[in-house]
Design a protein that fits this description.
alpha/beta; 11-stranded parallel beta sheet
C-alpha cells in the first residue's frame, strides 16, 4: 500500500485550522513529538510533553493558540490538538480494506441475506436467517448466529462470534475474540444443586459502537441486553445479562458489570472497575480505576473507592491500622460514655 501524502495546506483546510508556516510542505505520517522526523506531523495535547516542543524534529505540529505563541516551526493552530490528531489519523491508517465478495471457504445458510457489497472472509460461518447489510466487512473465521443482524458499514475483525438473535447497528467495530450474545450466568439453586435458567433474550447494540478484543456481552435472560449509540468498550470487558449501557458511555479495559445494572449516558468507567448487579448509575458519572461500585449512583460526578499505591512498608502499616478500626471505635464509644457520666450538666439560669 502506497503511503498517503498531503500538503500542510490541505490538512489545514480539512481541519479548518489556522496555518503558520509552509502550506506546500508534504506530510507523510503522524508521530509523537519526541519521535517525529521529517515529513511527519505531531501534536501537543498533554502539558507534560511541552518540554519536547523546542527540540522536536516534526515537520509541523498541531497546537493550541497558547502553545503556538513563540513556536518558530510549522504549525496548525486548532482548539483541540488531540481531537485534530484523531481526525487526521484516518487519512494515514494503513489497515487493509477487504474487497466486496464472499470467500470460497465461507459457509452461508441458504436463507441468510448478505448484501452484494459486503466482504465475507475465509472460513466465515453465517447461520440461518442472518442479515448482513451493505458495506459490512466480516473477517476470517467469524461466526454469525441465526437471525443475527449487522447494520451497514460494520467491521468485524477475525474470530468474532455473534450468537443467535444479536442485533447490531450501523458502523459498529468489533475486535478479534469478542463474543456477543453468549448465555448469561443464570442458575437457580435447588437443595444445593444449580439448575440452569435458559437465557431467552438477545443483545441489541446501537450505531457507532466499538467493542474491544476479547470483550464479552451476554444475552438477556428475558429482555435484551442493551448497548446504546456511540458506546466505546475497551478490551477484556465483561457485560452480564440484561445490562443497559447509555449512549456515548466509555469503558476502559477489564471492567466487569454484573447483571441487570443500568448505566446512564456519557459516563466514563476507568479500568478494572467492578459493579454489582441490579443498581443504576445516572448520566455523566466518572468512576476511577479499580473502584468497586456497590450501590446506585444518582448524582453526576466522580466516584472512587480503595486506596492508591504507596510503598509496601507504608501500605502494611495502613492495613494494620484498618484492622484495628473496629476496636478503636468501640473504645471511643466507651470513652465518650465515661466522659458524659462525669461531666456536670450545663448551668441553665432563668429569669425570676
Amino acid at each position: 500500500m502506497t503511503a498517503p501524502v498531503f500538503t500542510l495546506g490541505q490538512l489545514a483546510e480539512r481541519l479548518c485550522a489556522s496555518l503558520s508556516g509552509d502550506a506546500t510542505l508534504s506530510i507523510t505520517g503522524l508521530a509523537a513529538l519526541q519521535e517525529a522526523g521529517a515529513g511527519q506531523l505531531s501534536f501537543l495535547a498533554n502539558p507534560q510533553y511541552r518540554k519536547y516542543l523546542a527540540t522536536t524534529q516534526a515537520a509541523a505540529v498541531l497546537l493550541t493558540v497558547a502553545d503556538a505563541e513563540g513556536f518558530t516551526g510549522n504549525a496548525l493552530v486548532v482548539a483541540n490538538p488531540y481531537l485534530a490528531y484523531g481526525q487526521l489519523s484516518h487519512l494515514f491508517d494503513r489497515k487493509p480494506r477487504a474487497p466486496a465478495g464472499v470467500h470460497p471457504s465461507a459457509v452461508i445458510a441458504p436463507d441468510a441475506l448478505v448484501d452484494s457489497t459486503a466482504s465475507i472472509g475465509p472460513g466465515v460461518v453465517i447461520e440461518s436467517a442472518a442479515q448482513i447489510a451493505a458495506g459490512v466487512t466480516i473477517g476470517a473465521h467469524c461466526v454469525i448466529g441465526a437471525r443475527s443482524q449487522i447494520g451497514a458499514n460494520g467491521w468485524l475483525a477475525p474470530r468474532v462470534t455473534l450468537y443467535h438473535d444479536v442485533r447490531i447497528g450501523q458502523r459498529v467495530v468489533i475486535q478479534s475474540g469478542a463474543v456477543i450474545g453468549g448465555e448469561g450466568f443464570g442458575f437457580a439453586n435447588e437443595n444445593g444443586v444449580w439448575q440452569k435458567i435458559a437465557q431467552i433474550g438477545g443483545v441489541c447494540i446501537g450505531d457507532d459502537v466499538e467493542i474491544g478484543a476479547n470483550t464479552t456481552i451476554d444475552r438477556g435472560a428475558l429482555a435484551d441486553t442493551l448497548i446504546g449509540n456511540g458506546v466505546k468498550l475497551d478490551n477484556q470487558i465483561m457485560i452480564a445479562h440484561n445490562v443497559q449501557v447509555g449512549d456515548h458511555t466509555a469503558m476502559a479495559g477489564c471492567v466487569g458489570i454484573s447483571g441487570s445494572t443500568k448505566i446512564g449516558k456519557h459516563c466514563m468507567i476507568a479500568g478494572g472497575v467492578g459493579m454489582v448487579g441490579h443498581i443504576e448509575v445516572c448520566d455523566n458519572v466518572f468512576v476511577t480505576g479499580m473502584t468497586m461500585v456497590t450501590r446506585s449512583i444518582s448524582e453526576p460526578g466522580a466516584y472512587s473507592s480503595g486506596t492508591a499505591m504507596q510503598p509496601a512498608a507504608e501500605w502494611k502499616k495502613s492495613v494494620t491500622r484498618l484492622r484495628h478500626l473496629d476496636d478503636l471505635a468501640r473504645r471511643l464509644q466507651q470513652l465518650e460514655k465515661r466522659v458524659a457520666a462525669v461531666t456536670p450538666p450545663a448551668d441553665v439560669s432563668s429569669d425570676a
